[in-house]
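As a next step, we paired sequence with structure tokens, yielding the entry below.
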Amino acid sequence: MVKVGTSTLTDERGRIDRAFIADLAAQLAAIRKGGRDVLLVTSGAIRAGRERLAAAIVDPEDRAAPQRPPGSVATRLADTLPYKQAAAAIGQGLLVHTYTEAFAWRSVDCAQVLLTRDDLGDRRRFLNARNTLLALLALGVVPIINENDTVAVDEIKFGDNDALAAQVAALVDADLLIILSDVEGLCERRPTAEDPNPPRVSVVRRVDDAVMAMAGGPAGAGGTGGMATKLHAARVATQAGIRTVIAPGRRTVVVADILAGADIGTDFPPRPATARISARKRWIAHSARSRGAVTVNAAARERLQSSGVSLLAAGIVEVEGVFTSGDLVEVRGPEGLPFARGLTNYSAAEVRQIRGQRSERIAAILGYQGFDEVIHRDNLVVE
């Protein structure tokens, strides 16, 4: 799995770099012909659409765009969400066409796959996406994957193709995730004017708070992610047993060099098999979208984190949101910070009635008792 962001895809003028795409396609096509399955997660649809729309609508991020009167309809539309969605709708086809031509020159077929968080959050759609991707790989096709920015408002606002790449890599049981960036990798400290090139970290064994503290903001003007989103993606992927590398995308034959074992970027070795979580729990932890939250007391949090037990009603003090049985909910500690996620056996209204009560009291309160636990440990993922 290779992921490339907008900042890496664009040239010094902020335009989609067709020569770079051709070179990347050549690298991936060679790997595919060598017998390895290849998937690509790419950003850049909105950027490509902006280029096409620049002749008709003023784009405040594009100095090359023709100027329009300040009060015109085109000017008023230029930086709105509908404009970005329209740009994505136009640009996605242009972007995939560019990739398709680049791969065709190397006699490799590719296919467009658009996903949203909801596609991976719904268990049935999650499995359908997996089956489709595996079928494409079996046919020798390179899937070109992107978020469906035309309809996914949250994805446009926050940008998480790094997270998407990690989740899809886990979805298809990838062996390696390469995140191509416009930086050399993770640095020991944030670059500053006085220290623009701090030392690169070659290997990270575990993405903990100290490692996350090294992350800065987005490195390029065209991107929406940054090192923090890449580190989160590395944590998700390594938990699934997938080696992850954050590497400079503009380096010559960078993908082939990584496969050859060169010391490039920052390498995140996979977790040992004993420390990995199951595919189903990975879906609970990272793919499913929470419908609400429950807050537990300190004693319950301690038991959940140290003993791997189920969440009982007795430990719950607050309930937030509207959810039903089978929905995913966050579990928060006394300070309000989430530390677990799980599938609830009871609705929000039912949990509000039984919170703080012992399990043997559930039947008397609700008039029935389906489960002793609010969240069974088999359906619970604790950090």
